[in-house]
Amino acid sequence: xNIIKKYKSYKAVFLSSLFVLLTAACSENINxxxxxxxxxxxxxxxxxxxxxxxxxxxxxxxxxxSSWTATIEFVxxxxxxxxxxxxxxxxxxxxxxxxxxxxxxxxxxEVLIDTWNKSSFVAGTNYPELxxxxxxxxxxxKLGLDTNNADGGDTFFFRGEISLSDGRTFSSTNSGLSINSxxxxxxAFGFSSTFVCVPPSPITGDWVIEMADAYGDGWNxxxxxxxxxxxxQTHAAVGSGNTVTVNVPSGTQTLxxxxxxxxxxxxxxxxxxxxxxxxxLSDGPTPATGTLALNLCNxxx
Length: 301
Description:
Strand content: 35-45%
Structural class: mainly beta
Distance between the termini: 5 Å
Oligomer: single chain
Order of helices and strands: EEEEEEEHEEHEEEEEEEEE
């Protein structure tokens, strides 16, 4: 798959997701969470996360493999019995616009992803619970998103909404600050899924690392580690700098890149090129430590 877009800067971020709570129930134990968005607003219900997948990112290179699951519970002053359904909506934010003249491919109009009625709820310890799965490829289809207009770092934003048996609905727009600021609960109202580019298997061939030291005395303990099927090889700048080739052989199962800092990090810079010749990472001075986030969104897989 070859994804070409005007902006190649990419941060592989495992979807740290943001959820915003729905309106609180009328229980004396959670009075502070009852406050609605308006001073005289109504009180109703909210939903909170019991458990969820740690990784909620969308792999742009293989969206069919990207999904996450969450279990949420519904709270109201009738032990959750007033909740009739939970709906999930999505939008798309183009975060990788190269300049003012480049098109913005954001999709700001919400699209309904799914609705789960109370027949899908199960009895939890204290309140009814719902377990649901979100599939990235389904979201792409329903939004009508052309993945050629997406890149690593772009984002899906989701909004949840609960409907009560009396016809009222609750979401972030009519929930109070105690709900929306996530002070007390892991909410189940809104979250984000950041696009990353993780190939189904490592890209093999000759990778190139260009390393430089501004002072000219090498990296003083800093180095790049390349783990090929768990076997580590390390590389560091010598003198003012040097270039090395790292061969990743055909059949490699795992490939990981890391940077370890040394002294005088403000002198260290490096660039990594994929076998295609594309620049996939440029970092420094003072490179980020740990696992390196390579921009592989423009690689042919």
